[in-house]
Amino acid sequence: MKKTAVLVLLATFVALPVAAQKPLHFMASQTLSYDDNIYLTDKNTKDSMISTTRVGADYKANIPSTGLMLNADAGVGYNAYTEKHNKNNYWEALGGFGISNDQFKLGDRVLYTSDPANSSLDERKKRLNNTGYFSYATSHDKMFGVGILASDSFDRYYDADMQYLNRNRLNLGAQLFYNLSPKTHFFAEYIYSDIDYQKSKGKINNSHGHSLGLGVEGQVAAKVTGTAKITYDMRDYEQNQEGYDKYNDLVGYYVALAWKPTTRDVVRLSGARKMEETRYGYNRYFADTLVSLYGSHKLTDKFTAALTLSWENMHYAKSYNGKKRNDDLWTVRPELDYQFKEWLSAGVWYQFRLRDSNSHRAGGAYAGQSYDYNSNKAGVFVKAVF
After folding, report:
1. 3-state class (DSSP) for residue 306
2. 285 forms bridges with which residues in the sheet?
3. Distance between CA atoms of residues 199 and 209, nearest Å
4. How far is CA 8 from CA 113, 166, 236, 257, 301, in A?
5. DSSP label of 164
6. 270: pLDDT confidence band, cut at 50, 70 and 90?
7. What's the whole-model pTM score?
8. Mean pLDDT across the stretch 92-100?
9. Which residues have a Cβ under 8 Å from the Cβ of 339 and sit 6 or more positions away?
10. Are residues 218 and 257 in contact, defined by beta-carbon separation less than 8 angstroms?
11. DSSP H stretches of helix in 197-342
């Protein structure tokens, strides 16, 4: 759920039209939506109208005499609920910058948000994420090349009962390229990672990891661009405690591909399979598998129809209360947009989400209830970019 919320927020703030040639853009949007299950439960559901207001800015321009591109953006949003607004209303914001060319990337992003409550007993959890990144690769004009990459990501939770999740993740890696052409590159990579939790309650998940990857990027096929790779992840935990696995490994993948068969159609396939941290029973991690398919078609010069389909599986390797927990999350989201002018658009959307879990809550007011739920959301929006 966190990942989905973050991706939607980033897409809303950053995806500004590229038709306008000026370097500085401002964006403002207003969405009015209805959610029939804001706490994502299978019983005693609560609905709410939600007003979402966002404003942002984006700057993109060449740095004179360097061959580098500078991009900076910032945005803030406010979400207002009719159901228990003192509890559910929340702010969100992001900002960042990047300096890049075909071989070099350097940047930093800051995200502030709150998790949607997952039961009527939970408050939203305020958190801050800061991620810095750097990469460099030799020219793709030659047959073989090398590259290096690094990133550092820090998560900070503001609520005292969640601060054991505060952590820092450092990634350092190297790549070897076989450049089939200036636009198509096969690569092998190695990435070392170190995950360090800041509070003693979380340090049971401190670990060192190694990841091997083999893939292709760039012009993957005719009218298809992006990245696709298979991975093998290994993780060794610092603390050896009874009931917990000290070492884990996982075969995974990463896909981010775009296909543009015509000037009026776009299809995007994205997905990943990787380890995600958890503190559920004796599980230090779960295997997270995600596949998302997006397609859009311009019905006319003004109308664009889009559809998003996604599936996520969260599998826990060790049993808890006699079961190995396994959750499937399905999402369907159709949307219809109308472009009034180059700078003004509006649209309607609907989203259905279903979680199917084989586990039940162990304690508290919701003891014995399933983690299953279904959620229906619908909304209208208007957005201006100028």
Report:
1. strand
2. 277
3. 20
4. 12, 23, 32, 18, 25
5. G
6. very high
7. 0.88
8. 97
9. 301, 302, 303, 304, 345
10. no
11. none
Q: Which residue has the higher pLDDT, 331 or 44?
A: 331
For 67-119, the DSSP string reads TEEEEEEEEEEEEEESSSHHHH-EEEEEEEEEEE-SSEEEEEEEEEEEEPPSS
| CB neighbour list of residue 221: distance below 8 Å, 6 or more residues apart | none
73-89 confidence digits (pLDDT tens)? 999 999 999 999 998 99
Q: Tokens for 197?
A: 């939790």
User: Per-residue pLDDT tens for 42-75?
Assistant: 888 999 999 999 999 999 999 998 899 999 999 9
First to last CA, the chain: 32
Do residues 12 and 30 touch, judged by C-beta distance below 8 A?
A: no
Confidence label for 281 from pLDDT (cuts 50, 70 and 90): confident
Distance, CA of 335 to CA of 324 (rounded, Å): 36
Residue 191 confidence (pLDDT): 98
- Dist. CA 44–CA 215, nearest whole Å: 47
Give the whole-angstrom CA distance, residue 155 versus residue 205.
14
- Separation CA 295–CA 308 (nearest Å): 7
The C-alpha angle 106, 107, 111, rounded to 5 degrees, equals: 160
Strand partners, 110: 95, 130
- The neighbour count for residue 210, using CB atoms within 10 Å, is 14
- pLDDT of the residue at 363: 60
Asked whether 229 and 215 are in contact (CB, 8 A), the reply is: yes
Residues near 376 by Cβ (< 8 Å), separated by ≥ 6? Answer: 35, 36, 37, 350, 351, 352
The confidence score (pLDDT) of residue 243 equals: 87
Whether the Cβ atoms of residue 354 and residue 344 lie closer than 8 Å to each other: no
How many residues in the chain?
A: 386
Q: Where are the alpha helices (DSSP H) in the chain?
A: 2-14, 85-88
Q: Which two tokens stand for residue 241?
A: 């405690």
Kindly report the number of other CB atoms within 10 A of residue 79's CB atom. 21
Q: What angle do CA 283, 202, 239 make, to 5 degrees?
A: 65
Q: Is residue 17 scored above 60 in pLDDT?
A: no
